[in-house]
Amino acid sequence: MKKHEILSPQSRAALFDPPTDPAAIVRHYTLSPDDLALIRQRQRDANRLGFAVHFAYLKFPGRVLGSAEVPSCDMVAFLASQLGIESDAYSEYHSVTKPVGSILATYNRICEFVLSAATITAVLQGSLRPKQLAPIEAM
Question: Which InterPro entries match (predicted)?
């Protein structure tokens, strides 16, 4: 480890990488009725599945999906099956620029706290991870 590195690469992967094990995918990415209602507000299958993937990443491992990052096929297929959507719809969503800011705003509204503009900018730029964030104002 480097001098100021707190976590080893293995520890960092365990904390921040999404699961690949089928049992862990089921445990972390089973959608609640409230989750399904929120996701179904999106207008097209590709948008619903894309939003579900982003939302799932925010829930676990607690971070934004990286711009060059591709979620596992198993995770996308599991989310798609819960939504009654073909998992191929994600490729259509993935080919278009994602509005991560609106996804974070929705997540903030659901979690009932407000983040400063600087904090949201830091998340979007990748310098903060959502689990590092502390609520600054209760709604």
Answer: DUF4158
Residues 121, 138: Cα–Cα separation, whole Å: 20
Q: What pTM value is reported for the model?
A: 0.72
Indicate left, alpha or beta for 63 from its phi (over 0: left) and psi (-120 to 50: alpha): beta
DSSP string over 39-58 = HTTSSSHHHHHHHHHHHHHH
Could you tell me where the DSSP H helices lie in the chain? 9-16, 22-29, 33-39, 45-59, 73-83, 89-94, 100-111, 117-124
3-state secondary structure of 69: coil
Instruction: Note the pLDDT tens digit of each residue in 26-45.
Output: 999 999 999 999 899 988 99
Please state the domain extents for the chain: 19-138
